[in-house]
Amino acid sequence: MDTLTRIERAIERFEDTLLAKVFPTEPVELLGALREECDSQAVVCSASRVVVPNAFDVELSDEVYEELSRHGKQAGQTLMDSLLRHAEKQGYEWAGPLAVHVAKSDQVPNGRYRVAASPLTHIRADAFADNPR
Questions:
Q1: Residue (of 40, 51, 12) closest to 116 by Cα position
Q2: Hey, which residues does 44 pair with through a beta bridge?
Q3: Confidence tier at 133 by pLDDT (50, 70, 90)
Q4: Each residue of 1-16: b (16+ CB within 10 Å) or e?
Q5: Contact 51, 43 (CB under 8 A)
Q6: What's the whole-model pTM score?
Q7: What are the b/e assignments for 52-64, b being 16+ CB within 10 Å?
Q8: 38, 93 contact by CB (below 8 A)
Q9: What integer pLDDT is reported at residue 35 of this predicted model?
Q10: Is the CB of residue 28 less than 8 Å from the CB of residue 72?
């Protein structure tokens, strides 16, 4: 198990390094912010079930938004793929279908981006209960 963990971490470092070379630093920072938001909102339902939010709102400053827009769908897909891999690695279960909404905002606190996560509103509380199978 230790070997697999080391390999996964090496791949993740390689991915972050590659992204840093291809994109400006914002996407790499955004990946970390999305992962952190996912982890901080995790709800432990049982020893074998951890549910995380499935709706992520990413607000970008005009400058960052324009920079990422130059890369087209590649940057958005990279954020989504990274979240999917992170959740799989952690053994997380999504509260529903994953959605990442990226928007421009002139009110981001750090002048670059803001990330927020929540379960979609149509998810019922009983969906978090363990279902014996």
A1: 40
A2: 50
A3: very low
A4: eeeeeeeeeeebeebb
A5: yes
A6: 0.67
A7: bbbbbbbbbbeeb
A8: no
A9: 92
A10: no
